[in-house]
Amino acid sequence: MIKKAMEEALNEQINAEFLSAYLYLSMSAYFNSLGLAGYANWMRIQHQEELAHATRFFDYLNERGGKVRLTPIGEVQIDFNGVVDVFERTLVHEQIVTGLINRLMDIAMHESDHATKSFLQWFVDEQVEEEANVEQILHNLRLIKGEGQGLLMMDRELQARVFVDPFAGAKA
Ligand code: FEO
């Protein structure tokens, strides 16, 4: 049976992952409003990944006999100041999520909860990748100053992103 402090922290993370999904869906809508279908697609896939993260935490808490508590999801930003602004905010958001995952790991270590430590390791590694991906896009956007022909070329590249369920085959 999972300890209360760990249960509480995992419930908070379920909410944080759903909030991330909400934020990226909002960013996708913003890009659609600009007619940038590729950027909108990239954010839509990001949204799906966050839903997968949320449900993975949900499944894990169930597996461990914890009580799932689904709390209201906060309101997210709907207006942005261009493509660079969106990805700067995405990077800041992912850095915050990295901090949350590290905090979860700290609690698991403090509680000597080895199963949760093992479970969380995937998310620790995932955050390294998440931040690196966003930093790369941001770097490219800054090179093209977030405008012109380059913006449209990147739009076509980001259109190619497809969703791959990271937990396909994982125990529910
Ligand atoms: Fe669920 Fe983008 O981390």
Based on the model shown, name its key terms.
binds MU-OXO-diiron; 5 helices; mainly alpha; Ferritin
Walkthrough of the structure:
The structure is a single chain. The chain has 172 residues and is mainly alpha-helical. It has a single domain, classed as Ferritin (Up-down Bundle), CATH 1.20.1260. The chain is built from 5 helices and no strands. The relative contact order is 0.16. The mean pLDDT is 96.
Topology as a string of helices (H) and strands (E): HHHHH
Q: What is the beta-strand fraction?
A: under 5%
CATH architecture annotation: Up-down Bundle
Please name the fourth-level CATH homologous superfamily: Ferritin, core subunit, four-helix bundle
How large is the count of helical segments?
A: 5
Can you identify the CATH class? Mainly Alpha
Distance between the termini: 17 Å
Q: What composes the largest sheet?
A: none
Hetero groups bound? MU-OXO-diiron
Enumerate the spans where pLDDT stays under 50 for 5 or more consecutive residues: none
Give the overall silhouette.
elongated
Class derived from helix and strand content: mainly alpha
Gyration radius, in Å: 17 Å
